[in-house]
Each structure stands twice: as C-alpha cells, then as structure tokens.
From TrEMBL:
It comes from Populus trichocarpa. The lineage of its organism: Eukaryota, Viridiplantae, Streptophyta, Embryophyta, Tracheophyta. Belongs to the 'GDSL' lipolytic enzyme family. Pfam families: Lipase_GDSL (PF00657). This is Uncharacterized protein. SUPFAM superfamilies: SGNH hydrolase.
Length: 237
C-alpha cells in the first residue's frame, strides 16, 4: 500500500471518528496522538530489485528529494487535519540486508554490502532531519522524534554478538543465496533453526528480536540515537 493510499485511508478514518465521537473529542484525539512513519526502504530498493529505470531519469539527489517531499507532504496533510506529533526513522544501511547482498553476489560475485543502495540511504538520512526541522519553523505546534536506525543497525552489523545476534548477513526464512528471496511460506523456502540468532527474518525485514531492540531505543533512547525527543517524551508533551 503506497503512502498516498495510506493517507487517503487515514482521512476516511478521521471522518468516521468525527461522526462517531464528535468534532471536539476528535480534535483532542488527533492532536495528542503520535503518527509513526516507517517509510523509504522500498523507494530505494525496488529500483534495484525490479526492472525500474527511475534512477536513470533522475540524479541520486533529485530522487531523494522526491522521496523526502512525499513524506513532508503527507505530514503537512495530517497536520491540516489536526496531527501535531510525528515519529520517524532514518533508514538502515540498505546495501546490507540479505536481498542487497544477494544482488551484489549476482552482479559482482562479491558478498559484501551493495554500496549503491547505501549511498541513497545516506543521502536520505541527511535530508530527512533537515526537512523535519524546516517544517518545525512552518507549522505551529508541530513536533517530532527521529530515530537513527542507520547508526543503531551499523553497530549491530559490526558487532552482532554484543547485541545477542549470530547472523546478520543471511535471512532466517527464504530461498536462494543468503535465503534472500522473499518466498517464506510459499512452495519453496528454507527456515532457520533459531530465529532469535538472526537480525533479518526475510530478505529485508528484521526479526521480532531486532525490532524489539529498535523499539526500545525509539521509546526511551538517548539523544545520541533519537532526537530531539524520544517517543516516551513525545507522548508526554
């Protein structure tokens, strides 16, 4: 489901709530809620995993600007409806999930991270905080929290055992090299013996254990990893 459709669904839900609860109660509900965004990964990975030519039509910076623009447009739309608090995340090093590593194996024979995708993630991660800060100067009462998944993920990838993981390159469930093909639950797939040892469940999605660690950092992490507020503080504001 793309971001535009999600926004449309949200607007429909807001109308239903207004009819059910009344304008005053809905206004309070919308202004105190925190709107969580986890978005961008597909925008940068799909051009490499499909036959898309979009990156041939735009420079990397132009493409990132479009993605960031889509995010800020939706934030502004939610703000118009009454939303004031937003939680977002930077992207992981997108060249390092199994699906990217498997592409690198096919393309070059190497098994390391796919640098081309990580470059886009880095550009995105630099642009996002700037865009969110700019909105702060435009939208009265708007506030946000941004989690640095790139730094958190890199720390785990560089020293998995410190965080309780044994495998950060291969997926727990899937098929093909590194079990990176997202076929889990279909006719042909392999499943690891102990999912708690893995950072990635399939070719791109982290395991429950990995997501729990990230959620904990998002909730009450220090300003080094989540800023200008963690989610706990954002909910209390």
């Amino acid at each position: 489901m793309d971001l535009k459709t999600q926004l449309s669904n949200f607007k429909n839900m807001e109308k239903q709530l207004r009819q059910k609860l009344g304008a005053s109660e809905v206004k309070t509900l919308l202004s105190t809620a925190v709107y969580m965004f986890s978005i961008g990964t597909n925008d940068y990975l799909v051009p490499f995993t499909s036959n898309s030519t979009v990156l041939q039509s735009y420079s990397k910076k132009e493409y990132v600007k479009m993605v960031i623009g889509n995010i800020t447009t939706v934030i502004q739309e939610i703000y118009k409806i009454g939303g004031r608090k937003f939680g977002l995340s930077k992207l992981l090093p997108l060249g390092c999930p199994p699906i990217s590593r498997a592409l690198e194996i096919v393309r070059t024979g190497g098994s390391g991270c796919m640098e081309e995708v990580t470059v886009l993630a880095k550009l995105h991660n630099r642009a996002l905080p700037k865009a969110l800060k700019e909105l702060k100067s435009q939208l009265k009462g708007y506030t946000y929290s941004i989690f640095d998944a790139y730094t958190a993920g890199t720390a785990i990838f560089n020293n998995p055992s410190k965080y309780g993981f044994e495998e950060v390159k291969m997926a727990c469930c899937g098929s093909g090299p590194l079990r990176a093909s997202i076929t889990c639950g279909q006719k042909v797939y392999q499943l690891c013996d102990n999912v708690s040892e893995y950072f990635f469940f399939d070719g791109i999605h982290p395991t429950e254990k990995a997501n729990y660690q990230f959620a904990k950092l998002m909730w009450d992490g220090s300003p080094k990893i989540v800023k200008p507020y963690n989610l706990k503080t954002l909910f209390e504001k």
